[in-house]
From TrEMBL:
It comes from the Bacteria. Pfam families: URO-D. It comes from Candidatus Desantisbacteria bacterium CG_4_10_14_0_8_um_filter_48_22. InterPro entries: Methanogen_methyltrans, UROD/MetE-like_sf, Uroporphyrinogen_deCOase. Residues 137-336 form the Uroporphyrinogen decarboxylase (URO-D) domain. GO terms for molecular function: uroporphyrinogen decarboxylase activity. The lineage of its organism: Bacteria, Candidatus Desantisiibacteriota. This is Uroporphyrinogen-III decarboxylase-like protein. GO terms for biological process: porphyrin-containing compound biosynthetic process.
């Protein structure tokens, strides 16, 4: 059984006797891993079963200041701060008012966005390949500002619908190009945070009115093309997990254990949904000992991995505050 078949069986909730894993690294964490293991290609040389990429953006996920300057504008017109250690922050929305009359959404079919994806897929061998396709609600918060957008839901609902629809069309256009041009990949991933540490950032009824119908269309297009749907949403989103299952989600990420009871999630939704994540990042990884981390990894493999439907991963991309020995303890124990 190769890695691709392994992940497929896990998603189908088959107990393979071993729990798969996936790790994402910020630039400083990636350098620590490369130095520790004396390798250049982490995912390939450590044989990670899941591999991820995305179409190219004029604002890469990690845009170091020494290369891009202190600020950078993305294709939607949002101004970001740059950072040497993380993805930076949106510091100037492109929509000062709830009005799209003078705004033009970017076109998804820019050839440079897809130049390298086909070759990337070929290089991944027998791994399970997932392509990030963008963000919906989260993109709208970048474009308008979170506080403004939340007020717009009540004061300017038609604007919110129009904005989200425009973003959704960009995502759907991206997906159609991928399905036409890139044949060798297994799933699509959407990054769309809906929660804080305690609850959704909006009323669940508003989420169901504004976000859910567009997600259903995005998920539906992926499933119609026989692709797995992977959805990243930080925070406590328990209230809408049944909705995500209803519209066709396959894998929920990153199930932050500081925000939700992940074992209760497994018990309640584990027959209908696969989970990816669950390793504590707010205290354990940066401040725990290597032995504590190994113990936690073993526990997650035993409790969450039982019966399939689980991919071990930290509850967020590994950041610069995690010591080298802790990262190595996590990876080594996961790979056993």
């Amino acid at each position: 059984m190769n890695n691709r078949e392994w992940i497929k069986q896990i998603i189908e909730h088959k107990d393979t006797g071993k729990t798969p894993y996936n790790f994402m690294f910020s630039p400083p964490a990636r350098r620590l891993v490369e130095s520790h293991y004396k390798i250049k290609s982490i995912e390939r040389e450590l044989d990670f079963p899941v591999r991820m990429t995305s179409p190219r953006s004029i604002k890469p996920l990690y845009a170091p200041p020494e290369k891009y300057g202190e600020q950078i504008q993305d294709e939607f017109g949002v101004i970001w701060s740059t950072s040497a250690i993380d993805r930076g922050s949106p510091i100037k929305p492109c929509l000062a008012e709830p009005d799209l009359s003078g705004y033009r959404f970017p076109f998804p079919d820019q050839p440079c966005r897809f130049d390298e994806i086909g070759e990337w897929c070929k290089r991944q061998g027998d791994s399970f390949r997932i392509i990030w396709i963008g963000d919906l609600w989260e993109r709208a918060t970048f474009m308008r500002g979170m506080e403004n957008l939340l007020m717009d839901i009540k004061l300017n609902p038609e604007f919110v619908k129009e904005l989200l629809c425009g973003i959704s069309n960009f995502i759907l256009g991206t997906m159609k190009i991928l399905f036409q041009q890139v044949l060798r990949f297994d799933g699509v991933a959407l990054s769309d945070d809906y929660g804080n540490q305690k609850q959704l950032v909006m009323n669940p009824a508003d989420w169901r009115q504004f976000v859910k119908p567009l997600l259903k269309e995005i998920y539906g297009l992926a499933r119609a093309n026989n692709r797995v749907v992977f959805h990243h949403s930080c925070g406590n989103i328990v209230e809408i997990i049944p909705d995500l299952i209803e519209i066709g989600l396959d894998i929920l990420h990153p199930i932050q254990p500081e925000a939700m009871d992940i074992f209760a999630l497994k018990k309640e939704f584990g027959k209908d949904l696969a989970f990816c994540g669950g390793l504590r990042t707010q205290d354990l990884l940066p401040r725990g000992t290597p032995e504590e981390i190994k113990k936690e990894v073993r526990m997650l493999k035993d409790k969450m991995g039982k019966g399939g439907g689980y991919i071990l991963e930290p509850g967020i991309t590994i950041q610069a505050d995690v010591p080298e020995e802790n990262i190595a303890a996590m990876i080594d124990e996961a790979r056993k």
